[in-house]
Amino acid sequence: MKITSHAFKANAHAAMGNRTLRGALERMETGGFSAARVAAVARLPEFDELRDRAVEIKNHTLAHLDFYLERFEREVLAQGGQVHWCATAREARETILSLCRKADAKTATKGKSMVAEEIALNPFLEQNGIAPIETDLGEYVIQLADQPPSHIIVPAVHLNKEQIADLFLKHHAQYGKTERLTEAQALVGEAREIMRQKYIDADVGITGANFLIAETGTTIIATNEGNGDLTQMLPKMHIVISSIEKVLPTLEDACTLLRLLARSATGQESTVYTTFSTGPKRPGDLDGPDEYHVVLLDNGRSGMLGTELQDALRCIRCGACLNDCPVYRSVGGHAYGWVYPGPIGAAIDPLFIGLEEAADLPGASSFCGKCEEVCPMRIPLPNIMRYWREQAFEREVTPLSQRAGITVWAWFAKRPALYRRAAGIAVAALALLAGRKGRLRRVPFAEGWTAFRDLPAPEGRTFAQQWRAQARKRAS
Amino acid sequence: MRKTARPQVGLFVTCLVDVFRPSVGFAAVKLLEEAGCRVTVPEAQTCCGQPAYNSGDRRDASAIARSVIAAFREFDYVVVPSGSCGGMLKLHYPALFAGDPGLREAASDLARRTYELVSFLTDVLGVEHVDARFDGKVTYHDSCSALRELGVQAQPRKLLDSVTGLHRTELPHADVCCGFGGTFCVKYSEISGDIVRKKAASVVASGAGTLLSGDMGCLLNIAGKLKRDGSPVAVRHVAEVLAGMTESPAIGDARP
Question: Is B45 within 8 Å of chain A by CB?
Answer without folding.
Answer: yes
